[in-house]
Amino acid sequence: MRRMNDAAFALPHRLRRNRQSAAIRGLVRETSLAAAQLIHPLFIKEGTGDEPIASMPGCARLSLDGLVRAAEAAHQLGINAVVLFPAIAGDLKSPQAIECANPMGLVPRAIQRLKEELPDLAVITDVALDPYNSDGHDGLVSPAGIILNDETVGLLCAQALCHAEAGADIVAPSDMMDGRVGAIRAALDHEGHTSVSILSYAAKYASAYYGPFRGALDSAPRSGDKKTYQMDPANAREAVREAQMDEAEGADILMVKPAGPYLDIIAGLRNATNLPLAAYQVSGEYLMIKSASAAGWLDERQAVLESLLGIRRAGADMILTYFARDAARWLRE
């Protein structure tokens, strides 16, 4: 008679049984990742031809023709939303950032092109002053160097209205001024744009991970930093307060930025709200994976998909990522 192994008898629960094949692992998998959960950030510029971005290998500042091609390629892979970031010419930047609400400006024309040629694609626009502000800040700056909250909010409302009138589906205020979500919601509704959604950068941290993005748009502050309006990386409870305020003011979707270093914040907000939750895998996160992969230290595909799955596992419903097209393609293979 075969003797029962005492060690085996002592282990009625063997978790490895649920890992023994790809088929079984698929049955018990707790978190999914799909192209429809990804949002593709795209940089746009005036003129013809596309310009590679030195600080973000694989990304480019796109002409409007290039934008349509990139958005169409993403859409064919199952990505249903893009978010636009404009590289504004220096002669259009000013301390008053008035170009941000120009109905004939770069962003409104980009929205119109996308809605004409890809009507089923959701178009999200960034609402903030830093691309247009000669000071490089997300808000208007006083002569004393103070970021002016309430004066900035009024201009953000004009910018959001400009985007809505051009056909944007979602406006995404990333400025972190107090009260801007409620003011934008009221402005949109007053002008009949009740169906335009607000994706609020509810918890946007004053992070070191934004450097490559600022290089792409030449949007770094000319003096000082953004610590008086973006969140302190040391704070978690404050993120819940920010999210609750934005939800009360009428936000439709909340966002955490950056994503990877702030998975605890994503998880905390997931437990604090029933609103859809977005997370932004920012340029520094992108560049770290790209650089390590180029050096042969990481497998890019595996690292990207694992990082995105981790963001989803933390509680994000959707992810803004520069890897969107690559990830969507890999998920099909």
Count of DSSP E strands? 12
Strand share of the residues? Answer: 15-25%
In spatial order, strands of the major sheet run 1-4-5-8-9-10-11-12
Uncertain segments? none
Task: Write down the overall geometry.
Answer: globular
Rg, nearest Å: 22 Å
Largest sheet: 8 strands, parallel, barrel
Structural class by SSE content:
alpha/beta
> CATH fold name, please?
TIM Barrel
Fold topology:
Elements: H1 6-9, H2 22-28, E1 38-44, E2 51-52, E3 60-62, H3 64-76, E4 81-86, H4 106-117, E5 122-127, E6 140-141, E7 147-148, H5 149-166, E8 170-173, H6 180-190, E9 197-204, H7 211-217, H8 237-249, E10 253-257, H9 263-272, E11 277-281, H10 283-294, H11 300-314, E12 318-321, H12 324-332
Parallel strand pairs: 1-3, 1-4, 1-12, 4-5, 5-8, 8-9, 9-10, 10-11, 11-12
Antiparallel strand pairs: 2-3, 6-7
Notes on the protein architecture:
This protein has 333 residues and is of the alpha/beta class. It has one domain (33-332): TIM Barrel (Alpha-Beta Barrel), CATH 3.20.20.70. Helix content is 39%, strand content 16%. It contains twelve helices and twelve strands. The chain has helices at 6-9, 22-28, 64-76, 106-117, 149-166, 180-190, 211-217, 237-249, 263-272, 283-294, 300-314, 324-332, and strands spanning 38-44, 51-52, 60-62, 81-86, 122-127, 140-141, 147-148, 170-173, 197-204, 253-257, 277-281, 318-321. It has an eight-stranded parallel β-barrel with strand order 1-4-5-8-9-10-11-12, surrounded by nine helices. Strand 6 (140-141) and strand 7 form a beta hairpin. Helix 5 packs across helix 6 (180-190). The termini are far apart. The mean pLDDT is 95.
